Amino acid sequence: MIPFFVLAGVFIFCRALGWAGVEFLSAWQYCLRVAVAAMFLLAASAHWGKRRADLIRMVPPAFPHPEILITLSGIAELAGAVGMLWAPVTKAASVGLAILLVAMFPANVYAARHQMMIGGRKVTGLALRTVLQIVFLAAVLAAGWL
After folding, report:
1. CA 136, CA 102: separation in Å to the nearest integer?
2. Residue 47 carries which DSSP code?
3. Of 8, 30, 100, 134, which residue is least crowded by CB atoms under 10 Å?
């Protein structure tokens, strides 16, 4: 849930700044790009911090080399976050992050079905996680393409 709160909170904060006269943030799409970037920066930070071992455990056993997959997905999240803020590559970053979200969904399903923990907290249930994944996909695509 924390990534959702970051996405929503940063979006609302940026919109408020836009209404207060910050020119760049006057358009909702730019605010959404900043919010998506913030969410993925937060998510990427877990790939190397205290939660890394939890993320590695989330990778379904059918996927080889979970440590490498977690590292690569963290790098992709960082690159996507930066790409959302750099206009020449925003569309490509949007597509890349959407593909990444879909690719990582099996790990979320596995974690929910096995009632795993991340950072000492139980993972989000599968129904809510699915809804959140759809919201994240919509936000990533809207930020890059509308």
Report:
1. 10
2. T
3. 134
Instruction: Give the tokens for residue 67.
Output: 């440590």
Handedness of CA 92, 96, 102, 108 (dihedral sign): negative
pTM: 0.94
Q: Tell me the chain's radius of gyration from C-alpha atoms.
A: 15
Report the candidate in 89, 104, 102 with the shortest Cα–Cα distance to residue 144: 89
Q: Please check whether residue 32 is in contact with residue 139, taking contact to mean a CB–CB distance below 8 angstroms.
A: yes
Side-chain half-sphere exposure of 70, counting CA atoms within 13 A: 21
For residue range 62-90, what is the model confidence (pLDDT) as tens digits? 999 999 999 999 999 999 999 999 999 99
For residues 54 and 76, give the distance between their C-alpha atoms in angstroms, rounded to a whole number. Answer: 19
Give residue for tokens 């994944």: 133
Q: Are 15 and 33 in contact (CB under 8 A)?
A: no
